[in-house]
Amino acid sequence: MSSMYPPYEGGAAGQVCQRCRMPLAPNEIYCSNCGYYNAPASNQPAPSNPGAPWGGGAGGYPPTTYGQQYPGSGVPSQWGQSATPVPAPPPPSSPAFGGAPGYYGGAPSSPPPSPGYSFPDQVGAPPYPSPAPGGYPPQAGGYQVPPLPPAQPPERPRRGPNFGLVALIAVVVLVLVLGGIGVLALTHHGGGTTGTLTPTPAQSTGAPTATPLFSDNFANNNHGWDLTSVPGRYSVKLGNGQLLLEEDNNRILPEFVPGKTFDDFRLDVDVAITKGTQENSGFGVYIRASANQNTELATYYRFAMYGDSTYAIFKGVVDSSGQPLDDQKLVGYLSTTALKPIGQVNHVEIVAKGSTMTLSVNGQTLNSVTDSSYKSGSIALYVSNLPDTPKGVVVAFSNLAIYPAS
């Protein structure tokens, strides 16, 4: 039977495609039927094939590094055939845009376009590395761009914690207490507790005869009081026999007795609210106060009096990290006729001896508390502009004297 192809001069007699078994033309290494590469016989040199489209060596097909066949080959990879492989020519040292066909005309960092058909992945072809997130290459040594720093916390008030919330609660509690007491007074004629406590007359102690531990008539600032002021927020003025504290921002403004700490003592001072209303004003004294890294008023006892003729006694506390907590109310809020109305001078007396502390106003004892948590510390006078009320309260202190407790 004659062959389907006539013999070619100089051809290798009987040489057929190793895959489809079709006869090959002389010097034909790629089967014209299936495209399979057939290694030349060992006794025949491989043709130079000067017209090969890729300009490569034997076969003219440079190897791909992306696991896909080059366009136009029409054949898959060899699926483990035992034929002698074609040695791969070295790739160009720096392929550039518009370079030789077969490298997709781009730099090696750009992946080739996928063909319209698929083939089994070539064994050993490394995957194309995915770009770094955001299009930026990874930093050398594993360095990552640091995140933006968190927003800084707001600046804390200069003069200690805000006790406005305590004063607001005081107003609410006072309304509830007075309302409940009023109902009891109407339903129990002559029985129960009235809304106004009758102050206990103070025992006559007479004027102290001991030398004061500290005293100031506020004629000048020889003692070095802190007169720092911020217009529109608070101010401290001293002279003409008065220490004027003004608070315009619904907070408490304390003024510390300069350079002194006290354990047991008796304090006497005259106080008058010169600007304010019954609903927005208050004043008082901190005793046995101490500071920490978070605030200048961390722990203390606070004796508070208000423009509506009520009073209370508080204890300042902190949490395990030293942050101030809400004041603990030891006494109050209680109403008393001992406190004179706005514009009139009240004489305030506080005695701290051991764990017992007593508050008296205008010669009448209002209340005593016993607590052994704090034994000594600073003393501070203060003005209070209660929260959620009209801004602006001024309190005048005069004739301050601190004596040893008798």
Automatic annotation (TrEMBL):
Keywords: Membrane, Transmembrane, Transmembrane helix. Residues 126-136 have a biased composition (Pro residues). Residues 116-125 have a biased composition (Low complexity). Residues 221-385 form the 3-keto-alpha-glucoside-1,2-lyase/3-keto-2-hydroxy-glucal hydratase domain. The chain crosses the membrane at residues 163-186. Gene3D superfamilies: Exo-inulinase, domain 1. Pfam families: 3keto-disac_hyd (PF06439). Residues 45-157 are annotated as: Disordered. GO terms for molecular function: hydrolase activity. It comes from the Bacteria. Residues 65-81 have a biased composition (Polar residues). This is 3-keto-alpha-glucoside-1,2-lyase/3-keto-2-hydroxy-glucal hydratase domain-containing protein. The lineage of its organism: Bacteria, Bacillati, Chloroflexota, Ktedonobacteria, Thermogemmatisporales.
